[in-house]
């Protein structure tokens, strides 16, 4: 008797294995384990688990992080006797923070838990020193707007430079490094906005309000690069100082040469300390930052408007890629309410401005 036909199922006996379920060809869902998006992360982390050497590797990186911490914490103890190394370090101190993300990347690539932990130290120090400068501390109000600009002796566009300063709304403007052949151009361009002005040597002061008791300030150079005047502002008199400190140089054989600048800063600090008026504003190119110990004679008795009421570091030099704030607006007896940098002119410095409020 013929048997009915049955299709072959692939099971030929009790010992046959069950067939595999068919694949559908569907790709894994995004974010599922093993997807390409997680591979870079897994390559960085897979080698950490169970690896006891993560606390032994990266000793050099950890030492570098410690050295970075020591420099930022004890910068004031770095001696100036050899090439003014201390002042040079303090001039560019905020930029030492760039070493932190660099060491962080190297520590991750090296898979060093030791270096990562030690990196907490310089990060905490940098945040303590400079994080406050990264926020906008400006407030509304104010009674007087001031501006200062090293216009550069080789500036061939006095009119354009003045237009930038006038657009800031400044009531009082100080200019430094005025070349003799450019003076007439600045006086002509400023005349429409500022009725009162004085020029002493290579520095000048222009004001919307009357100037009295104008005189040179001796900063031990032998020629005029600083002045003092009383501005009769609507809310009261204020003594305004304008100064251009001697330049500093970085030389391979001599380091950071700043002896003349340091002596001039001391002389200016002494003059300001003798000032009889309680309201004082200092405008100028000090060729030094607020961190530079050489300016202690000035900074110990005055406040930086940028530090008190600015937005960011306010770097002013060099104009093409600002790396340091060597142009300063400093005050005592008045309250800074805002501080900012102005657009670039034909100078190698950026102009800066600030608004202050008179205290009762």
From TrEMBL:
Q: Which residues does the UniProt record annotate as the domain Endonuclease/exonuclease/phosphatase?
A: 147-349
Residue ranges under compositional bias (Low complexity)?
Answer: 22-35
Q: Does the keyword Membrane apply?
A: yes
InterPro entries in the record, alphabetically?
Endo/exonu/phosph_ase_sf, Endo/exonuclease/phosphatase
Q: Which Gene3D superfamilies match?
A: Endonuclease/exonuclease/phosphatase
Write the record's keywords in alphabetical order, separated by commas.
Answer: Endonuclease, Hydrolase, Membrane, Nuclease, Transmembrane, Transmembrane helix
Q: Specify where the region named Disordered lies, as residue ranges.
A: 1-45
Name of the protein this chain belongs to = Endonuclease/exonuclease/phosphatase family protein
Q: What is the lineage of its organism?
A: Bacteria, Bacillati, Actinomycetota, Actinomycetes, Kitasatosporales
